[in-house]
Write a structure and sequence with these properties.
The chain has two domains: 216 residues, H-NOX domain (Alpha-Beta Complex); 99 residues, Arc Repressor Mutant, subunit A, CATH 1.10.10.60. A hairpin with a 2-residue loop joins strand 3 and strand 4. Strands 3-4-7-5-6 form a five-stranded mixed β-sheet. It is globular and about 70 Å long. By secondary structure, it is of the alpha+beta class. It contains 17 helices and seven strands. Helix 5 packs parallel to helix 8, helix 6 runs antiparallel to helix 7 and helix 11 packs across helix 14.
Length: 326
């Protein structure tokens, strides 16, 4: 299944569920508290889909997304949200949201479409494991933030959702103060095109420039939700502190060593293979940075430089010194 989802999108689900019911969520999704607390971690679209389904089931509230939108504090969605808040106009904020959505969820694609006097924030590619309530939350958050931040009065024209209604449609109409249609041709938030030109009270050009550079760098790096990618990410820090062993990495990910090994095996790899790959990647970077062989050996967690020499020769067919000369 393609794509991955940031754990930032899972945290509102966990908060809405409450600590007493969280073990049920972890059990159903194979997520852990440690993983969800890691700002850089990502999960699969299937896990995200199941998390939303479990939230609706456990709360018995089909419209729970609306309650979450009302309770979500500013800044919950990290750099993507702050880039949008710093934009000069509502239209530019929504364009930034579309541009950097993959930092939060790259299994879905959204576009801002303007046709005549209407603008549409439209889902153009749905996830292979759809989470319909996540679209409800997105549109509710956009509507709420637009009302709070726009310097002109903002009102949604309509909300159109391709999925079927599972609750009282009147609840949605009252929340959005607009027509809400389920089973529509497109999943989209409809608004007046003129609203896009409204300035934002939170606009900050200097901050936007800084945040955009940072977001572009994150955008350049392809996110990955595989367990191998999660292990590699933890190892890049752990090796420097001589903690590049499976027990430490498993604990950081909220798993037992056995569970971690099993999940890596399901991806046709192993902890040893991932660690070798990370070491090789970092070794070349450190050589390019002109670190000494002893420093590199230490940073990669080898017991002595000779062990690093042997490993590097196995990886590349050259010694580190020969590689540096080349």
């Amino acid at each position: 299944m393609s794509g991955s989802v940031s754990v930032l999108l899972v945290r509102p689900i966990a908060a809405a569920l409450g600590s007493a019911r969280l073990p049920e969520l972890w059990g159903a999704t194979d997520l852990t508290p440690e993983l969800v607390s890691d700002d850089d971690a990502r999960i699969t679209p299937a896990q995200f889909c199941i998390a939303w389904a479990e939230l609706v089931r456990l709360t018995d509230d089909p419209a729970i997304a609306l309650a979450i939108a009302s309770a979500t504090p500013p800044g919950a969605f990290g750099i993507v949200e702050y880039v949008c808040r710093s934009a000069p106009t509502l239209g530019e904020a929504l364009r930034q949201w579309v541009r950097y959505l993959n930092l939060l969820d790259d299994a879905v694609e959204v576009a801002l479409v303007v046709e005549g006097d209407r603008a549409y924030l439209r889902v153009t590619r749905e996830s292979e494991a759809p989470a319909p309530a996540s679209h409800e939350l997105c549109f509710a958050l956009v509507a709420r933030q637009a009302k709070q931040l726009s310097t002109l009065p903002f009102r949604v024209t309509a909300v159109e959702l391709a999925h079927a209604a599972t609750g009282d449609v009147a609840t949605y109409r009252a929340w959005f103060d607009a027509p809400v249609v389920f089973g529509a041709e497109h999943t989209q938030l409809v608004m007046p095109a003129a609203a896009l030109d409204a300035a934002l009270v939170s606009s900050d050009p200097a901050l936007l420039a800084v945040l955009t550079r940072a977001a572009n760098e994150l955008h350049r790096k392809a996110p990955d939700a595989t367990m191998a990618a999660q292990v590699a990410r933890v190892l890049r820090d752990a090796l420097r502190s001589d903690e590049g062993h499976i027990d430490h990495v498993a604990k950081k990910l909220g798993l037992t060593s056995r569970s971690l090994q099993r999940r890596l095996k399901d991806e046709s790899t192993s902890f040893q293979a991932v660690r070798e790959s990370v070491r090789r990647e970092l070794a070349q970077r450190y050589l390019d940075d002109r670190l000494t062989i002893a420093e590199i050996s230490f940073l990669l967690g080898f017991s002595e430089p000779s062990a690093f020499f042997r490993a590097f020769k196995r990886w590349t067919g050259m010694t580190p010194i020969e590689a540096r000369r080349a």
